[in-house]
Amino acid sequence: MKKICVVGLGYIGLPTAAIFARSGYEVVGVDVNEKVVSSLNSGEILIEEVGLPELVKEVVSNGNLKASLAPEEADVYIIAVPTPIHDDHSANVDYVVEASKNIAPLLKKGNVVIVESTIPPRTIDDIVAPILKEKGWNLEDDVFLAHCPERVLPGRILIELIENTRIVGGVTPQASKKAGDVYRAVVEGQVIETEAITAEMSKLMENTFRDVNIALANELVKISRRIGVNAHHVIELANMHPRVNIHQPGPGVGGHCLAVDPYFIIEKAVEESPLIQQSRKINNSMPDFVVNEIKHLVSELNKPKVAILGLTYKGNIDDVRESPAMEILQELLKNDELNIAVHDPFVQQEKLKVTNNSLDDALTGADLAVVLTDHNQFKNMDENKIVTLMKHPVIFDTKNCIGIKDDGPINVYKIGNLSGINPIS
Q: To 10 degrees, the CA torsion angle through 21, 23, 26, 28?
């Protein structure tokens, strides 16, 4: 293995390319976005990830990594393009198909093709493999095709790409071995070989498990609202059982994994997946639940100012994909009776249709502050500043991350403890 071609320079493809380049391989990263390509070739990147800007600058300057608008001949091809969903929640694998077709004419005997994109089960066998076979390649002996799903946490991607166990599923045992050896060259974690469909399903079930568990916690929130119990305290005590691990509730589920991956299973087995489907409905209902609670809190005020704190789907990153906070914001903006101010320290202004204020500007004169993302900045807000700047020092914490105690001048309402909540007056 001498040269690697990584197709797709997003949140997974770019760190992957940089990791291999740091290990001494010649890497070409491919993207259809001219801005991404030109920025990378200048040693700059357009996404935020801890340690990535410095690493990219290093491997571009030493010549190990370059970017291109078109794939080049290589020994290994890694496809890391997005797999969004259609309006009916079915998977859109067009980018995977296009990437496969683009590299097919460049292949030569002995090449390894790895799809890292998250895909529905049987995509490797039923879609990608036929594309390569149409070009005359024998997937038994000539070209080795496999799926190796990413399984990293934003904010820790460079660490987890190295340390995490990797699952490699080939269309043949030899393909699993060849693809596995690609990762063994840079990965410290275990590399496990299996079949393509098993690798596809393992990735989907990892995130579906979490989605179902979060749905259970979010359903508990609604039950607690009705019967008058603190869901956070319930979860804390229940999790003291050695075999119980209830996840944390919140305003919904976001990102390109938990909010999307379960649908890839559903579309392949609709009648057999009622639990997964219901969990998706519960988590998708949480933004409306939050909006209704916000309206209830400010129902007695005239043209109240609501400060929205956080728009990304998780803390300390810049990713707003499928973020429930964005959905909540858009719904609130439809209400002319509300004065909405927004602050997110990680999101660039060009990603928003509203002004991204400073924290002080968002809080000044606000009647209610709604924490939708668990950024560290919000966990450690200055209590004196809140009291001084806000008209009514009231916080609705949908992430259960604020450390302020509700026994002083600031009223803090947690998403799992809303029974008997009174409107601000």
A: -30
